[in-house]
Amino acid sequence: MGRTTRALISRSALAHNLARVREAAPGARVMAVVKADGYGHGLGEVAAVLAGADAFAVSCLAEALALRAAGVRAPVVALQGFGNSAEIAALAEARVEAVVHAAWQLEALAQADPGRPLRVWLKIDTGMGRLGFPPADAPAAWRALRACPAVTGEIRLMTHMANADDPDDGATAAQLARFRAATEGLAGERSLANSGALLAFPESQAEWVRPGIMLYGISPFGTRSAGSLGLRPAMRLETRLIAVNRRGAGDRVGYGGEWVCPEPMAVGVAAVGYGDGYPRHAPAGTPVRVAGREVPLIGRVSMDLITLDLRAAPQAAPGDPVLLWGEDLAVERIAAAAGTIAYELVCAVAGRVERLTVD
Ligand SMILES: *Cc1c(COP(=O)(O)O)cnc(C)c1O
Fold first, then answer.
1. Ligand 1 pocket, residue 194 CB under 6 Å
2. Is the pLDDT of residue 1 over 90?
3. Residue 311 and residue 330: Cα distance in Å, rounded?
4. CA distance linking residue 314 with residue 63, whole number of Å
5. Does 160 sit in the ligand 1 pocket, CB within 6 Å?
6. Could you tell me the CA-to-CA distances from 112 to 96, 177, 183, 305 in Å, in that order?
7. DSSP labels for 134-185?
8. Which pLDDT tens digit goes with each residue over 129-159?
9. Cβ count within 10 A of residue 59
């Protein structure tokens, strides 16, 4: 038997979500973030469906080259820039724009002779505490880039929001103010907003927005559903029941035998596990849909299999479809049950899971 676990990727949902970005940020150009294999949805397919985006963002050179290999001719931005001097020429050659976030990168650029000059974004750390120049160093870094022969075009300016997933958190407004002050008087287009910021803080939109998660139909906010934001989930992770077993009261289910049948009952076995990217920490009670009904996961998630309490789905039989997440079962719910975020779940869908682009 071949594996029946599949991730169906909806073209119409991706296209709808891009339209939703345009509607929410009508004055901005859209840099669609497709790092990590299009958040696990498949880089080439996602980029093809989102061809209407004004640019794409990936993490690094390798992902940028994969986009070029997939035939993408639009502007591509490498969010981590170059990892060493050798990558400067490779980025320039592939016409990939580099984020410059550290002093060592400025020095490497000053010594570089890439043949073809590089387009760059200057990243300022306004409160994320991760990548970027301190605000006070931004003007000097901007001038150094302007003077650098290896750099071409206007210097664009960017920062990244640490708390935009919480619309009530004052940290985002503080970051916006710090960015404004640090970049005052510096020419160049600006980009600040990830999905959360572009939806909850429209004043962050500037010339370019950088949505990722919302393009895939997932809410960036802990407290608001994707549907309430007008988004449609793009991934449907599904498998099938491969066994339905009658168990007696006191029978144990799965590794460790932690789950014990309280009464005689049907236990379903579905062909998906952490080897496919289903989270091993999903506890008993995590919702799964079997033949259109929600039933609880029971027992530990194993590498290839999960076990299900079928008392709410007495007609369920081997071969029935099993939905792990998708339009009818928000991946955000599974993430909450497993103590993680939906970003991680979609990114973790394993290579052995067949991806099919549909509708
Ligand atoms: C991943 C990423 C984004 C997209 O964030 P979402 O929350 O997925 O919208 C934007 N900008 C940078 C720098 C990123 O790393």
1. yes
2. no
3. 22
4. 46
5. yes
6. 16, 34, 26, 52
7. -GGGHHHHHHHHHH-TTB-SPPEEE---SSTT-TT-THHHHHHHHHHHHHTT
8. 999 999 999 999 999 999 999 999 999 999 9
9. 16
Tokens coding 79: 């969010």
Residues 75-86: what's their mean pLDDT? 97
Q: Which residue has tokens 């963002």? A: 57
Instruction: State if residue 38 touches ligand 1 by the CB under 6 angstroms criterion.
Output: no
When computed from its CA atoms, the radius of gyration of the chain, rounded to whole angstroms, is 23
Question: Is 35 annotated as catalytic?
Answer: yes
Give me 145's structure tokens: 């880039």
Helices and strands (H and E) in the chain: how many: 11, 18
Q: Could you tell me which of 161, 162, 149, 86 has the C-alpha nearest to residue 120?
A: 149
Q: Which long-range contacts (CB under 8 A, 24 or more apart) does 336-343 make?
A: 337/282, 337/283, 337/285, 337/286, 337/287, 338/279, 338/281, 338/282, 338/283, 338/286, 339/281, 340/279, 340/281, 342/213, 342/218, 342/219, 343/39, 343/213, 343/218
Average pLDDT over residues 310-318: 96
Å from CA of 327 to ligand 1 middle: 23
Tokens describing residue 133: 């120049």
pLDDT band at 114 (very low <50, low <70, confident <90, very high): confident
Return the ligand 1 atom nearest residue 164 CA: 7
20 vs 211: CA distance, rounded Å = 11
Give the distance (Å) from ligand 1 centre to CA of residue 212.
5
pLDDT in tens, 7-59: 999 999 999 999 999 999 999 999 999 999 999 999 999 999 999 999 999 99
| Protein residue with its CA nearest to atom 13 in ligand 1 | 160
Six token digits for residue 315:
């007609």
Decide whether any atom of ligand 1 lies within 6 Å of the 101 Cβ. no
Task: State the average pLDDT for the chain.
Answer: 97
Banded model confidence at residue 239, pLDDT cuts 50, 70, 90: very high
pLDDT per position as a tens digit, 165-190: 999 999 999 999 999 999 999 999 99
> Model's pTM, two decimal places?
0.97
What pLDDT is attached to residue 2? 62
